[in-house]
Amino acid sequence: MARVRVDAGICGFTTEIFRKPHETRVYQVLSPHLPHVSCPLYSGFLKAIEVAALLLTALLPAAVWSQQQPADLEHIRREFYRAVDQEEATLRLMRWIEAGFPGGFAAYPPVVQAYYASLEGLRGRHAANPFTKLDHVRRAIAWIDALPQRHPRYLEIRFLRFAFYHQLPALFGVRGRVGGDLAVLVGRLEAGPDAEVPPQVRRDMILYILESGEPDQEQRLRLSRLL
Questions:
Q1: Of the residues 58, 79, 99, which one is the last residue of a structural domain?
Q2: One domain, residues 69 and 40
Q3: In the chain, at which end, N or C, are there fewer CB atoms within 10 A of the end residue's CB?
Q4: Do 13 and 110 reside in the same domain of the chain?
C-alpha cells in the first residue's frame, strides 16, 4: 500500500489518499475526492499508484524474473562454467550482471545473487595475493551464507553454496554447512524435476556431487539412480 498527502496550497484543500494498487476504475475511485475539475489530487492519486506499483515490483519473486528474462539466467549459467577456470570470464560476467540488474547486489533476484556471490568467491580463487584472496572469499561468504534459508524453494541457490563451501578450508568456518546442504540437495534431486532448474542443469548438479561432492555410499547410490 502507499499513502500520499496532498497539500493543494492555493485552493486550500488538504487530504490524504490511501488506496491499494490492485483497485481498478481509477476515475470511480478518484471522483469522491475531487472537489473541482482542476484539483491536484488527481496527480497525487496517480503518484500513490506509482509508488505502490514500485513496491510490488520490488517484491516479485525470482521465479517471475526468470520467466520474464530466461535468456539472462541462461547466459549467467553458461558463462559461469567459463568463469570457474578463467579470471577474465569471472570479471566479465560480474560486469554483465551489474549492467543488466541495476540497483546493486541487494536488488538482484535471489538466484542471480547466488551466482554473483559465487563469482566473488571465484575472484578469490583466481587472486594471487593471499590477502586479496581472503577479502574476496569473506565477501562472498557474507553474501551467500543466508540465501538458502531466505529462499529455500530455489535448489540452485543451495547447490551454489554447497559447491562453494565444499572447496573452502576449515579456517573460514563454513564447512559445517556442507553436510546439511548435501543432504537437502540429494533429497530435492531425488524428489524429481524442479520447475526452476532446467534438466541439463539438474543433471550437471548430480554429476558434480558424484564426482566432486564426496557423498557417502548411500547418497551416491541414490544420485546414481537419477542419471
A1: 58
A2: no
A3: C
A4: no
Q: How confident is the model at residue 27 (pLDDT cuts 50, 70, 90)?
A: low
Backbone angles phi, psi at 6, to 5 degrees: -110, 120
Report the domain count for the chain: 2
DSSP letter assigned to residue 172: G
Among the candidates 42, 58, 74, a domain finishes at: 58
Residue 34: give the domain boundaries: 2-58
Cβ neighbour number for residue 95 with a 10 Å cutoff: 10
Backbone angles phi, psi at 15, to 5 degrees: -155, 175
Distance CA 164, CA 187 (A): 19
Q: DSSP state, 4?
A: E
CA gap 129, 72 in Å, rounded: 32
Q: Name every residue whose Cβ is closer than 8 Å to that of residue 145 and which is 6 or more positions away in sequence.
A: 161, 174, 177
Name the grid cell of 87.
Answer: 579470471
pLDDT at residue number 70: 63
